[in-house]
Prior knowledge:
Elements: E1 2-4, E2 16-20, H1 28-44, E3 47-54, H2 57-62, H3 73-82, E4 87-92, H4 95-98, H5 102-114, E5 118-122, H6 135-145, E6 148-152, E7 156-157, E8 160-161, H7 164-174
Parallel strand pairs: 1-4, 2-3, 2-5, 3-4, 5-6
Antiparallel strand pairs: 7-8
Amino acid sequence: MRIFYDLSEVQKKENTVLTLGTFDGLHLGHKKIIEKLKKRALFLNCRSFVVTFSPHPRNVVYGNNAPNLLTSDKEKIRLFEEYGIENLLIVNFTKEFSQLSSESFFKNYIIEKIGLKEIVVGYDHHFGKGRSGDVNTLRKMGIEFGFDVTTVEAFKILNEPVNSTKIRKHLVLVT
């Protein structure tokens, strides 16, 4: 797996299937997204690419009120490698970065610097300043810039969607 810490290290290729998110915990819901990403990349003969952030955006935005993390960066990298991801960009998440609008982030980072044929995201994906971007934002941008958007439905246990927040709550109850 190739790991990038600076966008300038990434070679732009339109034949890219990409996902992005914080991926805290890399739980079964995340694994479902990664599996779909890999299948689409293989089917389209594209490279697979994951964009994630460090430190966790909530640590930057909320400071001491941020939730405890489920996985360290080192653990995340190991899991992405185990899951067979080819390329991983870890974006340095700063206060300044947190002020980028969803459209500005996506255009300046993903479209112009990485390249994109398809993006795979969870059904409830949000991104950009104030989490203002969502699947509808991506679909509009897909029409404008010529990429496809694939959404992955929630992975559920006992009819409840699995997510990092619920995992944290259950861990607090157990300890």
